[in-house]
Amino acid sequence: MQLFYCPELLNDASFLSNEESSHCFKVLRKKVGDHIHLIDGIGGFYEAEITIASQKKVIFNVIKKWNQPQSPYSLHIAIAPTKNNDRFEWFLEKATEIGIDEVTPIICEHSERKMIKNERMEKIILSAAKQSLKSKLPKINKVTLFNDFLNKNHSSHCFIAHCLPNQKKKLKNEVVSNSTILIGPEGDFSSLEVEVALKNNFIPISLGSSRLRTETAGVIACHTIALHHE
């Protein structure tokens, strides 16, 4: 199923954006009378019939709407952007495919990258959502300092995955329906950051016996939560 993104559907609009129109008309060769499938970004699927087709604008009539089944869990991952931007994009792609609700890039003491382009990240997320047939897009927040993130309101179950030799619980044994998980940079969280997180009621967790790259740890965390709720 080829999906088109049309957030304007929430305002009863019935046309694709210029970019989506061009892809629909020029690349996929859709024409008047053809049926297309759309998502609104917040959980709605739509089937529509094209009434006007051109490279600059595709107009349609909605025939049917249905909602994606609600996920049995909510997951927010706060993760340090990787030095290699491609690796962070890979994490966003795979996390979206597996299932995640919110991502916050965090700046830590050992962070090597302190900026990301949110517009680029949103495109990665949208592409992954279409590929995995998801109608609800994860939210990606602006880059946030580690301490500022800790001071915000989070879920009732907060975890920090780190490599320090402290006693940790296994995430697979701590899975709940509403989680916030901290994933550190390539150099891991500093001992002070771990200490501050624990004082803010974050539970220290292990993602397994292997030492993982940042982006791999993020994907493992997503998959552990998703698999538990299958």
Describe this structure in words.
The chain is α/β, with parallel strands linked by helices. The protein has 2 domains: 3-67, Hypothetical PUA domain-like, domain 1 (Ribosomal Protein L25, Chain P, Beta Barrel); 74-228, 3-Layer(aba) Sandwich (Alpha/beta knot). The chain has 6 helices and 12 strands. Strands 5, 6, 7, 8, 9, 10, 11 and 12 form an 8-stranded parallel β-sheet that branches. Helix 1 (18-27) links the parallel strand 1 and strand 2 (35-39). The chain is elongated. The model has no long low-confidence stretch (mean pLDDT 94).
Q: What are the SSEs and their pairings?
A:
Elements: E1 3-5, H1 18-27, E2 35-39, E3 44-53, E4 58-67, E5 74-79, H2 85-98, E6 102-107, H3 118-131, E7 139-140, E8 144-145, H4 146-150, E9 157-161, E10 169-170, E11 178-183, H5 191-199, E12 203-206, H6 214-228
Parallel strand pairs: 1-2, 5-6, 5-11, 6-7, 6-8, 9-11, 9-12, 10-12
Antiparallel strand pairs: 2-3, 3-4
